[in-house]
Amino acid sequence: MKKVVKNVDEAIEGIQSGMTLMLGGFGLCGIPEKCIEAISKRPEIKDLTCISNNAGVDDFGLGFLLKNHQIKKMISSYVGENEEFERQMLSGELEVELTPQGSLAEKCRAGGAGIPAFYTPAGYGTEVAEGKETREYNGKMYILEESLVSDFSIVKAWKGDTKGNLVFKATARNFNPVMAMAGKITIAEVEYLVEPGELDPNEIHTPGIFVHRIFEGKNYEKRIEQRTTSN
Amino acid sequence: MKKVVKNVDEAIEGIQSGMTLMLGGFGLCGIPEKCIEAISKRPEIKDLTCISNNAGVDDFGLGFLLKNHQIKKMISSYVGENEEFERQMLSGELEVELTPQGSLAEKCRAGGAGIPAFYTPAGYGTEVAEGKETREYNGKMYILEESLVSDFSIVKAWKGDTKGNLVFKATARNFNPVMAMAGKITIAEVEYLVEPGELDPNEIHTPGIFVHRIFEGKNYEKRIEQRTTSN
Amino acid sequence: MLKKEDIAKRIAQELKDGWYVNLGIGIPTLVANYIPEGIDVTLQSENGLLGMGPFPTKESIDADLINAGKQTITTMPGSVFFDSSDSFAMIRAGKVQLTVLGAMEVDQNGDIANWKIPGKMVKGMGGAMDLVASAENIIVAMMHTNRAGESKLLDKCSLPLTGVKCVTKIVTNLAVLEIKDGAFHLLERAPGVSVEEIKAATAGKLIIKGDIPNMI
Amino acid sequence: MLKKEDIAKRIAQELKDGWYVNLGIGIPTLVANYIPEGIDVTLQSENGLLGMGPFPTKESIDADLINAGKQTITTMPGSVFFDSSDSFAMIRAGKVQLTVLGAMEVDQNGDIANWKIPGKMVKGMGGAMDLVASAENIIVAMMHTNRAGESKLLDKCSLPLTGVKCVTKIVTNLAVLEIKDGAFHLLERAPGVSVEEIKAATAGKLIIKGDIPNMI
After folding, report:
1. Active-site residue, selected from the candidate residues C5, C14, C37, C46
2. What is the ipTM of this complex?
3. pTM over 0.90
């Protein structure tokens, strides 16, 4: 059973219009830039529901798919860096389901952990709680959130081995591990693809059981949104 | 704010009769043997509720506390290696709440993640589901399980730093990370205590925010239950 | 009639390339010894390991490296350790394609009992309740009858249940059976065992269609 | 009247040794620059870092190392990275002792609004809803009035809420106030600001007891 695919096009095979995708990353940090670019070159893939904490910027990341009108609906926690996004949202072209960041992460993890629903305090008393069950535990109010799964989860890791085990770097980890768990099919693009045994089994973040396809991407751009320095 | 305590006695300070303890480990693998031994030398601490996957063996681990009649109630998934345990349970001296292993792990994790309850399929249609709410999601039945927290969680790690960050070794990890999360006070005993910066921030299993006290234990016995070899 | 090793060997024939498999304590553990050539299977041990290897040599034994049966073991290249919540996350999410476990009783609806005999024995369910509630594909490996000679394949389990409507296949010392539509369907006979013997040893509803071949 | 830096400086006085603290975007971020001597505080960034350090030098910038405001940053010794679910696990479990964040409106019941202006602006709540629903101790850092000169301290928030009954303290350019028992309690005045000015700028119920000291 080979998980290694030879390139990004083979990796995204089977992604079709109308599907639900999860895409790792926080801002532009740790996004699967190779797969996103490849999907943007397949404009016939449309009406996607994309679950991603953010929606990229106008000319990078999910911004590519927005510009092509490939996305029907976004499930995100923060979408404030993208003019085209705002235009599509306010005009009604794009459906947006805003979800508290912690709930979004937990909904993905739950989906990947066989837990269909859980109680969380986030959003109690707000619009987010509308239509959801609420319950009191130990004097505090909680809302019932249902889990999320995807047809394809697409994640970006630092290192991976041919069995699909993944290691992430620094804060590029973010949503990638929980989304990797929640994919019916999970695609991992990595900076370094190594042989089994080269990663220390104590130091793997995502066990290979969650990963179905893996490939090494070349020349990562890793665009920076806020280049803040001390000098 | 110093988390490092000078010895095991300082580490277990404040543990009192009637409290709920979580104790990491699977079988005898990865148990906090130093803290358990120290509690067993304080027989005035009684009526404990101990949350631990197993209950030790007759002459090691939680078996020490059972022999001393310090435990009122065990919450475990498997208790089959301890005659004194079986005697106390069948005679009614010891209260036992058996919980599916995955539910037990998830109940601890949920307690340490601010999630008061979640749905799981484990135990549906069995004694475990008695008195619990059930619900169908996508054609499958689930039961609602509530989370667990402890007055003290006691865990054993391989390496730890003075900020409380922990790294576990091999399958000695097991319940330790989730129990560390769920303690009002969490005590970590480690084989190697190092300075901040000596552990790679990408490779830490339990962030120090969950750990309140830490010390280096000496001369770990690490008893083996089933010494199986190929030669 | 099959020995324990033969039951394990027969179950190993069910494995498919690329599968992740959880093997319970007892006969199921033996399945690992008979994985067919060319089939790449990764063993999951629910205490926190994917990629379980064989027993260690005396010299390389490590108290921190055990399986769910508390036996000292080794790892294969590409193995990974994780905590108990992550372990059951992958189990509940259906990422483990096959679970093999023992049972005290199985019934014709696929219910299974293997953790408690009221008033007599209560070792606990361990991870079995999570496993049977989650896996798509659950094979029970056991003797067809108990020590008293009574059938363990019943119309309804009498002992406290581990899970409901979950067992898909049973391999015993006498036969291979599939459970569907509220009955045991006889698929194969153990060498030298007659259909009559299997009938006699099966208390639940048994469907026998056509010639029943010898075990493959 | 305080500048943004002064608001941050005042909030820094609230920090206690050993605390884990989450600082929101804007004025809250500046608090990190004024942590008092001898106070050891660990900064949590909800995108997955405990132990956030200052901005990097141009030479050491790393695209894989950012804070929740998407700014490039560094780490302190003893820092740790984790995924988004673990990050909000520690937040919801109350392990972060203090959250400082900005707001568009706060009301006398401790409700806060900071993520949406219907029909005009919807950037999203990010992690704010999780943070305010979880932390015991929530300080809002903001201007006392908006650009139109209207009070941001109301009897009832008019914008969509981020959280209810959660804000415990507010530090503005004019004053330090505590929220309890359904009212704003004036604790301190900014240098050169009179109680009358604060009264005029506060739309919600304001309690003034005795002499109000200058900000510490």
Report:
1. C46
2. 0.97
3. yes
